[in-house]
Amino acid sequence: MHPLDDSPQHATALRDFRQSVIYQIYPKSFQDSDGDGLGDLPGVSARLDYLQALGVDYLWLTPFFVSPQRDNGYDVADYRRVDPRFGTMADVEALIAGARARGMGVMLDMVFNHTSTEHEWFQRALAGEREYQERYIFRAGSPEQPPTNWQSKFGGSAWAWAPEVGQWYLHLFDVTQADLNWDNPAVRRELQDVVRFWLQKGVAGFRFDVVNLISKPDVLEDDPAGDGRRFYTDGPRVHEYLHELSRETGLAQAVTVGEMSSTSVEHCILYTQPQRGELNMVFNFHHLKVDYAGGDKWTLMPPDFLELKRILFGWQQAMSDAGGWMATFWGNHDQPRPASRFGSDDPRYRPAAAKMLATAGLLLRGTPYIFQGEELGLPNTRFGSIHDYRDVESHNAYAIMRERGLTDAQALDVLAARSRDQARTPMRWTPEGGFSTAVPWLADPHAGASGLSVQEQLADPQSVLHHYRALIALHHQPLFAYGEIEPLLPEHEQLLAYRRVAGDEAALVLCNFSAAEVAVPLDLPDGAGLLLGNLPDAAPRVAEGQGTLTLRPYEAVVYRLS
């Protein structure tokens, strides 16, 4: 039993979002409490002590609302009801209270660009009720010709024919995810009510899914040069609508982050400048496309390291100079495991590479996000067949790749590197798994692997998990939470390096992204010292002082300069 009970008088004040570290939980894969093979909300509550000991400040939960689960909960059928497979409203309230008693806030994931086609609104639209048809984006036409040539993010046309009403409806994602019409004031009022409902439950923040896509142009037309995204990305009234949402709901008292699809740094500055009253911070994904050959997610290439640095540091400096704020991250529920993608799957280097990657990311300027399992350095894995995958995007991509002529083995190779299910495998609590007493909803190909569980890593002071705990504590320091960033060695082909500066305080971060040794000129001032290293024998090397430091494969060091 935790020494704090869950009563409000024991609630601890939450950190400022800039000084915080946010941990993302995919409830379906985190902890199963009732033996049905699905993670649930009581399972999250059962692991609150672990999360408190890790040192994180907010828990972002992906959607647990009523949903047909066509897109694993991002197809919401009711924003105010808990899907019974995850628990009850009482379970949500207990989780919010339990987290708050331990100094952590709960953030919910709001999917406001679209609803499930099973949502009451859409069903009433199909029944012919004009009021509800106007809550979506319907267009007249013939069944043979979509209104535009726009493409869905999941492949195929972004339009679906609804024979019930003889019209097309827009779905930028799956055919079961109908886009909402934010130009309709009734839609905006309803969604504001949803935010107020959850704020009254004690929710501390919100992540808004693909929120920069909510505003579409008045006239929808073909895109002869692309898939249509240039017409609706960061759309014409998106800033107005986000400001209104914040103003009308009291969101300024909560932590907010917007997921931005194909956005620009100029728009993200506007989204996050405090005086504008829109969002606290944004996710952008440009740095996670540096291994897309020809810009295609499903065509593999090694990461372009110099381009990665150019994007990371370009955004860091632009947002800092303009007073904007970023979410910093390497992975999430929609991305493959960063330990494999940007680190190493070579057993000789894997733990060091995972710790190096964490060092590089968690100490950037911005609010760090950790997706469950990253703190263990979980790698990608290979599923046996397409039938082992549960992700709708992966199934669609597999079908398209086979149509293009790839063999089954070639398509599975791509999915092993790119599928969203790589991140969604069950959390590893013990060497045996520890997620569920039943067969998990998604296979755990790591079963039986040594060194990849919480239990094992808690017992190993040199583990990836312990390194994350040390990094989280470092981020809580004002220098790393609020300081400016000075990129270094932008053209170095192996090294990511930067300084963090706040007044008279400064720190140097050096990260070797390669399996080769790298010699770094090092001119440390008097009084400098090692704050953190990812290899066990880093500390004695502080005595080198002036001269050259040779970073070993995947080594990372953080020096205090003043």
TrEMBL record:
Residues annotated as domain Glycosyl hydrolase family 13 catalytic = 24-424
Q: Which CDD domains has this protein been placed in? A: AmyAc_SI_OligoGlu_DGase (cd11333)
SMART domains, per the entry: Aamy
GO terms for biological process, alphabetical = oligosaccharide catabolic process
Give the enzyme's EC designation: 3.2.1.93
> What is the protein's name according to its record?
Alpha,alpha-phosphotrehalase
User: Entry's SUPFAM superfamilies?
Assistant: (Trans)glycosidases, Glycosyl hydrolase domain
A GO MF label: alpha,alpha-phosphotrehalase activity
**Keywords on record:** Glycosidase, Hydrolase
Uppermost EC category: hydrolase
What family is this? Belongs to the glycosyl hydrolase 13 family.
Looking up Pfam families in the UniProt record yields: Alpha-amylase (PF00128), Malt_amylase_C (PF16657)
Q: Does the keyword Oxidoreductase apply?
A: no
